[in-house]
Amino acid sequence: MKEKRKILSRSLAALVTAVTVVAVLLLNVLLSAFVGDRAVIDLTNERFNRISDESKGMLKDLDPDENNFTIYFLADKDELQSTELGYSVSGGGSEDSLWGMKYVYELAKVFAENYSFVSVKLLNIKKDADKLEQFRTTVGTKLTKQDVIIDNYTYETDSNGNAIRDENGEPVMHHNFRVCKRDSFFVFDSGTSRVYAFNGDLRFTSTILSLAGKNPTVYFVSGHGEEIGDESTLDASMNSDYGKATALRDLFFRAGFVTKKINLETEYETLFRDDSARILVIYGPKTDYKGAYDGGVDEIAAVRKFLNGIDHNAMVFLDNTENPLSNLEEFVSDYFGINVDKSIVKDNGANSLSSDGYTFISDYETDQYSIGTNLTAPFSNLESKPMAVFENARTFTILPAFSQNGGFYDDSTVTTTGAVFRAPKSSVAIEDGKQVADFGSETPAALMALCLTDRFDEKSNEIEGYMLFCGTSDFAADKYVNSASYCNADILYYTMRLMGRENVPFSIDFKVIEGQALENISSGEATGLTVLLCTLVPAVMIVLGTVVFVKRRHR
Fold first, then answer.
1. What single DSSP character describes residue 379?
2. Would the CA dihedral through 265, 266, 269, 274 be positive or negative?
3. Which of 38, 47, 396, 458 is the most buried (most CB within 10 A)?
4. What pTM value is reported for the model?
5. pLDDT per residue over 27-59, tens digit each?
6. Which of 91-105, 281-295, 441-455 has the lowest mean pLDDT?
7. Is 4 left (phi over 0), alpha (psi -120 to 50) or beta?
8. How far apart are CA 196 and CA 362, in angstroms?
9. Which residues have C-beta within 8 Å of that of residue 284, sequence separation ≥ 6?
């Protein structure tokens, strides 16, 4: 009888052990299946994986039915788990260095857990190259494992919130996205260049708000012989005829803008009623704009009033026309310090792309302190800089007061203007069929410039605005913008992004990294954790085992 009881007890013990082992295995499988890598344990004091109350307040009103965000990471899950914190890429790191991506990845998953309209996916740069092509907007776009793509794939809407439709009447779907560099999720110590803080909460929230907001609107000015089509103005549909400016219109669309045409003489009030208006495009006018003494609506005053508004910018492309553009050119000179010449550039050297020499490859601005080099900075580290092509390009000079570091002061406004591209040294300037300048021996004339105005309004609010000026509308022609051989599209695209700046919620604080992450705990804290894990748990098991053993001995 005792023998049977002993066998039964041992069998029961074996069964309990087996059941326990199976339960542990099942629990592990269930956790892996239903929780998986969504279970994030944050042992930092700052709670890097926590969405701040400020962010939640800003995101609470976003409509899940109108937004479909996907956060793409371009590395494998295992690669994204590195907790190492090091120097930025600019400080000597390589593109394969994925330090700090763990924090970005885990916070992205928290956003996906909290918001139904956000998901996280992993893509492989090589295997998913075809899918990633939709995020390579320009020829200069280079994606690495350090990049994070935040994409909102939704119906494209106009400035009134109505769906934009194609020629078949179908709503146009649109990838409105940002490619965020790894370094943009961190704050660096200016003295050591080492990572100081994590601002992922700010970066994700500001980008989501930017992509979910009302699409900014671009207005192409009509009524002066511009080659932008003749149909009704204020038409935001994608099948509108934009003539020679079609490629530029399409590039605006890919950059997340709505485009419309406007006649300043008859519709200028619409421009100021539209809160989504961001950019005014003056594209190759053949006749001059009306001024204060020309009767009717003062178009120059309307342009000036628009540019004095918050987040209002302009792109100006002036061709060499038979009709004088005195009012417009005077405004450009007074407001931006650009004196447009009557000559055009001709190159008979190696930079020429045409038999007549009027189509050529330009030179990059060499002055690193020029504000214009902000547009060419993405190409500065490339072994071979992509070519920018100009055709029938007018020359212009930048007034000295505007090109200085301090810019030009006028009624509390500081205007700084700098060249982006210049005529090649192998070219000359031609006016009325005669050579008027040789850029092999003279300072090459500017062909494109970027201008920044910075002023304060009556309430002491700082207002910034940009203008891109180009001496030819051909720079944005289809044959150059849609060619992967040239960087014309890149320059225009970067300008659009610059002018369509993201909304940044400054009230969201960054989270200091130093001493917060588990891998950076002190030796004393590490010893304490070691003692806790290595002694407490075994001690509990020993006590329980002893109690069971004693009870069984005295039965």
1. G
2. negative
3. 396
4. 0.66
5. 555 545 544 444 444 444 456 778 888 888 888
6. 91-105
7. alpha
8. 41
9. 226, 227, 244, 317, 318, 319, 473
